[in-house]
Write a structure and sequence with these properties.
Helices cover 40% and strands 17% of the residues. The protein is α/β, with parallel strands linked by helices and 334 residues long. The longest helix has 17 residues. The protein binds ligand PBG. Ligand PBG binds next to helix 6.
Length: 334
Amino acid sequence: MSRSSFPSQRPRRLRQAPWLRNLVQEHRLHVSDLIWPIFVQEGDQLASPIESMPGVERLTIDLAIQKAQEAQQLGIPAIAIFPATPPTLKTPEAEEALNPENLACRAVRAVKAEAPNIGIICDVALDPYSSHGQDGLVRNGIVVNDETVEVLCRQAVVQAEAGCDVIAPSDMMDGRVGAIRKALDSAGFEQVSILAYAAKYASAFYGPFRDAVGSAANLGSGDKKTYQMNPSNTQEALQEVALDIQEGADMVMVKPGMPYLDIVQRVKATFEVPTFAYQVSGEYAMLSAAAEKGWLNREQVMMESLLAFKRAGADGILTYFALEVARSLAENGS
Ligand code: PBG
């Protein structure tokens, strides 16, 4: 498109007043873009702060219900529930993942009963339950693929039985989306959808999350590089997304978020399916810590960072800021 140039073109003309900037604004953050990840723990009436995530707390189920109700009232479409499993229940085979009475399943049932109009998303992966902190089963020091997938299928069905609406495989095993889709369908859960962590990178930005669910100590000096992706790769992300869509993913996700917005943009442009991004714990920690120091304005960087996801093409964002953003949008509009 050919345009005239200065002085007939003056881009500042459209920036001179709030009403005008608002009128020509291309992207907007809306409360319906938000998915709120929450951490649950055992006990009653207990909110335990997570040191590396200032402002985020592990909640007992009774308190999680109240927060879910508030989120629902504010118009947040969905929450993602992550359990901080008591260390005594973590085992090498992660059997607790298949217990219909485990913390995550009880939380799902309780929230469904008390906040029926908010969607519930559950991760499928073994790391909250394994004593080695890996997302899969370990045989001779190797995270094995196919045997893990069988367990993940059972985990997905147990979560669907508890009332989970969206199953989110975050394990990065090959072939798991197709297998989980089949398992859900044969258990009668063809309406339960799959949000695949399709392009999930082996990222150091997950550190605070691992503190929150207590898997950091279990993982020790281990890493997840044999299944999560190499941060240097783009083509591989597109390949991963293509496979997950082929296998039946309804929605796909890129993770982490801010350092990987190029991937979000490529995925959205290439596949044209609902595409989500996860502003992960380390991103939250970074912004929160700088704000605590008075180096950044928390409210402003929160909004600006989330708008960047929209600009990249994300249909929605998983963010620990979700409740705060929703409150702010309710007060100030966009
Ligand atoms: C578990 C899982 C992780 C996150 C979401 N699901 C951690 C990991 O893969 O080690 C990270 C989320 C965050 O950092 O906020 N597989």
